[in-house]
Amino acid sequence: xxxxxxxxxxxxxxxxxxxxxxxxxxxxxxxxxxxxxxxxxxxxxxxxxxxxxxxxxxxxxxxxxxxxxxxxxxxxxxxxxxxxxxxxxxxxxxxxxxxxxxxxxxxxxxxxxxxxxxxxxxxxxxxxxxxxxxxxxxxxxxxxxxxxxxxxxxxxxxxxxxxxxxxxxxxxxxxxxxxxxxxxxxxxxxxxxxxxxxxxxxxxxxxxxxxxxxxxxxxxxxxxxxxxxxxxxxxxxxxxxxxxxxxxxxxxxxxxxxxxxxxxxxxxxxxxxxxxxxxxxxxxxxxxxxxxxxxxx
Length: 297
Hints:
This protein is an all-alpha fold.
């Protein structure tokens, strides 16, 4: 497998799962939680501590990051957002609070990174766990694990949407009061969305630190493309997954290949600038995009 294909696979799954979590919160809370990406360092530093300090496999950081990230996301919902919703706070203020939480998350990761650097004699606050990875059939293990995680989440999403939880989710999207008739608590659905979304973000941070580099603000590069994938997916769960896979995979291959051909990383980095431009164009056609996903959950 070429490097660009491996890189495209990791990027595509990362964006798809981030977009899935972002869409879950967007649909359940009604505001764009763009700073979900700021929880990616939770998993990255979990893998670092497990690998460098405890001398265990960095892949243990994937489930550990999911639990830690999910717990932090759930705490944010219970302690902050549930209270704001009870006070009928508007979506603009909810978004501003989300920005503040994202800044706090990045600051916390920066403090941890600085402490680790001082205590353990590191040269920089960034790190890479590639040396602790394995290879299978000439391909780095992180590629296999990331693709496997993407397939697992996609399969669980399809199964869940077709089962009873999918019916509850659709009822919740149509009218939360319908859930109260059947004895379901809308608050539990929101809480589950926060736990799953932040847990996925942290797990992806763990994998990115093995594939590339981990640092306190590592999630920022995925912010615009995460929102764009949700937009192109009609702000539906399955649409966000498919749009994330296609968008991130395509741009990684196109710009990454151009960088290899012309020997300049400028072409590879250009894909991050292309995403906001595509967002501006897609917003003009949002109503048409939404119509494409009518009937899709």
